[in-house]
Automatic annotation (TrEMBL), chain A:
Family: Belongs to the ParA family. MinD subfamily.
Protein name (Swiss-Prot/TrEMBL): Septum site-determining protein MinD
Keywords, comma-separated and alphabetical: ATP-binding, Cell cycle, Cell division, Nucleotide-binding, Septation
Source taxon at top rank: Bacteria
Automatic annotation (TrEMBL), chain B:
Chain's gene name: minC
Family: Belongs to the MinC family.
InterPro entries per record: CAP/MinC_C, MinC, MinC_C_sf, MinC_N, Septum_form_inhib_MinC_C
Protein name, entry field: Probable septum site-determining protein MinC
Organism of provenance: Plasticicumulans acidivorans
Any matching Pfam family: MinC_C
Amino acid sequence: MAKIIVVTSGKGGVGKTTTSASFATGLALRGFKTVVIDFDVGLRNLDLIMGCERRVVYDFVNVINGEAALNQALIKDKRVETLYVLPASQTRDKDALEQSGVERVLDELRQSFDYIICDSPAGIERGAMMAMYFADEALVTTNPEVSSVRDSDRILGILASKSRRAVQAEEPVKEHLVLTRYAPERVERGDMLSVDDVMEILAIPLLGVIPESSAVLQSSNSGVPVILEETTDAGSAYADLVARFLGEERPHRFLTTEKKGFFKRLFGN
Amino acid sequence: MTSDRTLEAPFELKGSLFTLTVLRLHESDLAAIGAALDAKVAQAPGLFVHHPVVIDLDDLPVAAPPPDFAQLAAMLRQHGMVPVGVRHGSEAASSAAVAAGLALLPESRPAMRRSDVRDEESGVAAAEVLPATVQPTAVAHNRIIATQVRSGQQIYAADGDLTVLGAVSAGAEVLADGSIHVYGSLKGKALAGVKGNTAARIFCHGLEAELVSVAGRYRTIEKGDSEWEQAVQIYLAGENLIIEPLVLETSGHRKL
């Protein structure tokens, strides 16, 4: 049975789409048949991050409205065999995400996929609610600063009260914390909340810490999920995250400042 | 189970609540009232057609005689309204209203009567009091929340105490008719005794609340206050909201 996983945050710009793209790619690299769906109707970005923006013909809303078959809208990734993207419509708005239609599409995807990753838009309105509603598990993406943490807290409250699992009194949505844009040197200076601060407020298990990294921006601009840039810090942090999600033990990295060696101090990075 | 309600009964009597328009009389001169009614109805013709109204005599000067209810009722009907009853009348006015075929409606709650409010001096602390009815409720239905209360969530224990085992996040609200106990840190709002139970208390392990209230008396807490992050109980002593550290004095071997 396929698992539906929502990548959500409440606040915008914290790294939901980056996380969705790398998480989905990471699961596909492990051989799982994975689809990542863009729920940000009207402000679609996932296709850019995944580097398939030139291949969008039909989209999620077309499938919901019955204007296209699901396999016409699914875009097969050119790099990873078992990875597919279902892009959002750029010309419509979130009202197009009608619940029974979303459910029908997800049910159809469940037939053939192992993992369905829902990339949520920011906010707590219709698009975000639809992305969350059918989820079995949630990656709550948070930056180490107070407004992002409070918004994530709000999202956790909604997952616990308004998701399908909550409404139908099933086992609750399994929650994972993904702390992104983490900069240990700024934590040490007291500019940023530490992992422990965030954990104390949100009180959910930590799945991964992604360091603030120039690699994220570079890979986004070139349409490559950063997890495919294996040598970068953010890429390897996402690889660890996927491994932990699949039950492997991996120590958390990038939590402390790198001790700069003599040559590094001399010549910089 | 037996029921005396049978489907064969020609009718059933049930209580129900309605919102009615109240016509507050400032004087009993029918000519003046008639002129004012003409003007009012002309502003919105059709608005008052078949509109039930209650005649309120609370604003009538004590010395003024009650209006002629039969004529007043006829005048209201002419304007499309349906007079249903009278309230806040003197004994004489009430019996005159009954004689004219009008119902007597119960008085509104004492605090709602304008004539009383007018006499009352407004208390200095009035701005600090949240609206609350005065009857304390019997504490019976306790509620336990085993998880964290998240930002944006509101949990209310009606007729009882509320116990939260996790934290109450900033932006969350916990309310109870009785007392509130929070075993995690209390960062949101906590309102105990919301129906006026002045004996209700708030207990918490780490006070970082945005606001605490007992029976309508409230206080905000600032970072840097002496109670910040302390284990405290909060209760009412007279009009004052007391925040007091929880110290276990009886356990001699325990060091705090």
